[in-house]
Design goal:
InterPro entries: Macro_dom (IPR002589), Macro_dom-like (IPR043472). This protein is α/β, with parallel strands linked by helices. The protein has a single domain, classed as Leucine Aminopeptidase, subunit E, domain 1. It has five helices and six strands.
């Protein structure tokens, strides 16, 4: 059974097997968590992302999917990039958000990762309400069969931490 832990802080400072990146579909870096991971991880991450774009992900990574690269200079072996959905008032995209967590755990299992650090996918610039993002994240990780021993949610601020803590119990 996977242990869920919560940390308030900087995901790029975590010492884990894999860090999940809330990436954009281009895989070429961006703002928020994505930009921070690329900056701290150094050029090796971007180089592998460019190779992925030049091969099987020519049109980018689809929402809800995940793919791994090196972690570069981060204190991890891999970065698992996943593309979260933008929040919509008109369309329920909850399944796409849940898929980000399931696919990230599937990739972690393929890699042999036992500890994985997750951000609150889609809860930043993609506008997903934090409480609902926490519900989907925690429920999905709990329901997904995986060999990952620790799923660590690394929350940037106190509000996010409290939303996840209310779900973890």
């Amino acid at each position: 059974m996977t242990t869920i832990t919560l940390v308030q802080g900087d995901i790029t400072r975590q010492s884990v097997d894999a860090i999940v990146n809330a990436a954009n579909s281009s895989l070429l870096g961006g703002g928020g968590v994505d930009g921070a991971i690329h900056r701290r991880g150094g050029p090796a991450i971007l180089a592998e992302c460019r190779k992925l774009r030049a091969s099987q992900y020519g049109k980018g990574l689809r929402t809800g999917q995940a793919v791994a690269t090196t972690a570069g200079e981060l204190d991890a072996r891999w970065v698992i990039h996943t593309v979260g959905p933008r929040y919509s008032h008109e369309e329920d995209r909850s399944e796409l958000l849940a898929s980000c967590y399931r696919e990230s755990l599937r990739i972690a299992d393929e890699l042999g990762a036992r500890t994985v650090a997750f951000p609150a996918v889609s809860a930043g610039i993609y506008g997903w309400p934090m409480e609902d993002a926490a519900r989907i994240a925690v429920e999905t990780v709990r329901a997904t069969e995986t060999s990952v021993e620790e799923a660590r949610f690394v929350l940037f601020d106190e509000r996010a931490y409290e939303a996840f803590a209310a779900r973890v119990g």
